[in-house]
Amino acid sequence: MLIKVFVPAHITAFFIPKFHEDPLLAGSLGAGINLNKGTNVFVNIDEKGLERRVQIAFDGEPVKKDDAIISYSVANEMIPSEFVGEVEIWQYFDFPNGHGFGNSAGGALGTALSLAYAFKEKTFLQAAQIAHKYEVQYKGGLGDVIAQIHGGVEIRVKAGAPGIGVVDNILFEGYKVLAVPLGKLSTREILDSEVVELIKKEGAVALEEVLKQPRVEILMNVARRFAERTGLLTGDMLDIAKELDKCLTLPSSMVMLGKSLFAFLKENEIEKTKTMLEELSIENYYISDIYNQKPKVERWMEGSL
Amino acid sequence: MLIKVFVPAHITAFFIPKFHEDPLLAGSLGAGINLNKGTNVFVNIDEKGLERRVQIAFDGEPVKKDDAIISYSVANEMIPSEFVGEVEIWQYFDFPNGHGFGNSAGGALGTALSLAYAFKEKTFLQAAQIAHKYEVQYKGGLGDVIAQIHGGVEIRVKAGAPGIGVVDNILFEGYKVLAVPLGKLSTREILDSEVVELIKKEGAVALEEVLKQPRVEILMNVARRFAERTGLLTGDMLDIAKELDKCLTLPSSMVMLGKSLFAFLKENEIEKTKTMLEELSIENYYISDIYNQKPKVERWMEGSL
């Protein structure tokens, strides 16, 4: 059987990391956006064979266990211990890896949900918790999985794994999202550095303001302030953000954590923004709708791939 | 501006009521199904006028405040205190009222979400909590609102309002849902009677089994046992359930709480089930898909009504 899961890309606008020994209690507070582009996971289960084999591929290329340790760990826990046969997990990413779009969580969650659908031994939240657990353990991210299961423009109001943390949504209207990946950034390095204290302080201020006035307009204002005050958005990237702002009603900001920018676009701002990106010699950008649903899990017809 | 919200009908399969002084901590544990038919709420906001006026209509007929006290209370709390003008709330129900399909919660939640979308002062969960609060306070129901915001085949694993209670989902494949409304039943009367103790006991047994094996097949088996052992499914209704079972793989059961039956249908069971319903002289029934998303909130174009 072949199963397909779509998990939205998730952009964090600002955050407060919450570390905890128990990965189910670790997570983050903050806010972000789920996009209608992201990670597509196809899982093919073949019950023939004499041994248990799990293969994972990123964008069509098989990867070694160590390079996909999060998804391998998820698969290993989701596949029943008595299963004998082959499980192929094909993960396709609309956004580049390591740029802050939640690919790692998307692959982990897509893997968990496909296998929950196939083997019918775990619920939606149990599968999502397993994805969250290995994301946290191997430092893929803290809040992407729980954000992705809710969709929309989200506010993480209580940290933790799915079923423990709480995610709220802002209702919005008439926006698309521009995403501009400019380079990689190691989440791990930032979270291990001194800037974490500043992130916690500025994150708390930002969260309070968004909860007081839950609107995307406020969200983007506080996100930009967070990005600048933490010193994460500086130099060339800040210069590009300022150029983009000239075309936009709401300020652009930095994707947490990637060397990437994002912004809300109104329909009538799309053309001038494209022209500006061309002037800045930026060819690699995405304009997406916001994805307002849960991840989509379905049986995929053979032959329609 | 005209806003449309769709909230799925919600059928409870079994439940454990959790009463609490604080309505945000009251709720229910249990399991149920969200359907792709339900309640459509259209809200029209006209900022002209000298005073604040709120009008509610059920299926096109204006209703008095006392007959729509839950939705009036929700509207009153959701509309900003400084607002002057007219708010018309049109609620349309696919299923008959009082038969256990969550119409009251659908109307309350649809009203809350439309007004959150219009006035941008409250988040999704804040609006849903207000709907839950008045549902509980005026005994419309305990678990419908939180079930409806999650969609799908749901298991309520922690009781409480949206943002406090926890709802999980069972992943399923290839089923439609048959719903047969046969008569009204007062939720309030059942919850005030002695049968509550039996409901709590049988509900706990059912929940444990579904969590151990989270499959719709188990869900329907324990739901039917719950319905019979609590003495709620008896007499003519039980006779009809047994007739329906002859056409079905999974047992049918009773909607909690309404004099209504429901069942999962496979594609190849639809025709013989229709023939059986005809033989039983039952003309009023519904065959729906399961609704797997959050309630849909959107601006509705004038003229497309």
UniProtKB/TrEMBL annotation, chains A, B:
GO terms for biological process: coenzyme A biosynthetic process. It comes from the Archaea. Keywords: ATP-binding, Coenzyme A biosynthesis, Kinase, Nucleotide-binding, Transferase. It catalyses: (R)-pantoate + ATP = (R)-4-phosphopantoate + ADP + H(+). Residues 87-152 form the GHMP kinase N-terminal domain. InterPro entries: GHMP_kinase_N_dom, GHMP_kinase_PoK-type, PoK, Ribosomal_Su5_D2-typ_SF. Pfam families: GHMP_kinases_N. Phosphorylates (R)-pantoate to form (R)-4-phosphopantoate in the CoA biosynthesis pathway. Belongs to the GHMP kinase family. PoK subfamily. This is Pantoate kinase. The lineage of its organism: Archaea, Methanobacteriati, Methanobacteriota, Thermococci, Thermococcales.
